[in-house]
Amino acid sequence: MRSYPRNSPEAAARIVALVLVSDGHVCNSEFDVLKHLGAERELGLEPQRLPHIVHTLCEELLVGGYASGSLLGNVDDSTLASLMAEVSDPALRRTVLRLSLAAVRADGHLADGEMMVVEAARHHWQLVDGEEPVA
After folding, report:
1. Spatial distance between the Cα atoms of 32 and 94, rounded to a whole number of angstroms
2. Where are the alpha helices (DSSP H) in the chain?
3. Measured between alpha carbons, how far apart are the two ends of the chain, in Å?
4. Ramachandran assignment for 48, one of left (phi > 0), alpha (psi -120 to 50 degrees), beta (any other)
5. What is the dihedral sign for C-alpha 64, 65, 71, 73?
6. For residues 132 and 135, what is the distance between their CA atoms, to the nearest angstrom?
7. Model confidence pLDDT, tens digit, residues 1-31
8. Cα torsion at 52, 64, 121, 107 (round to 10°)?
9. How far apart are CA 11 and CA 19, in angstroms?
């Protein structure tokens, strides 16, 4: 999986994208909520860039998960830690978690994959629902 510069809009957006695809499909309601919240602006992305980040992530996951037959088959704890490490700015971390949680709640269904990614963010960043780091 490619790496992005630390704290770049793309690194942050990829984590949101991972939450979006972690249940196996992306609902229009998830994109609608993110659009309503101005997610691209908040993450520092150019307009209409988030769908491209989601598409690129899916391609990378499909290539990596080909052998296992699972979209998240190659996203283990080490990979999650690596992705989370690309976002170190506390304010950006809170923004990513807030947007991710909004997307998760958009379709009214909390999938195991979504929870896995959100919990990885909380763990690696020591955050609780977008609040300040846990001491």
Report:
1. 20
2. 9-21, 28-36, 39-43, 50-64, 77-85, 90-106, 112-125
3. 31
4. left
5. negative
6. 9
7. 889 999 999 999 999 999 999 887 788 999 9
8. 60
9. 13
pLDDT per residue as tens digits for the range 52-90: 999 999 888 887 654 554 566 667 788 899 999 999 999
The answer to whether the beta carbons of residues 37 and 102 sit under 8 Å apart is yes
Gyration radius (Cα) of the chain, Å: 14
Tokens in use for 56? 């690129």
Closest CA to 60 of 42, 75, 45, 38: 75
Measured CA to CA, the distance from residue 110 to residue 11 in angstroms comes to 23
Question: How far from the centroid of its chain's Cα atoms is residue 2's Cα?
Answer: 15
Q: Give CA–CA dist 130/97, Å, rounded.
A: 5
Contact yes or no for 46/103 (Cβ under 8 A): no
pLDDT of residue 78: 87
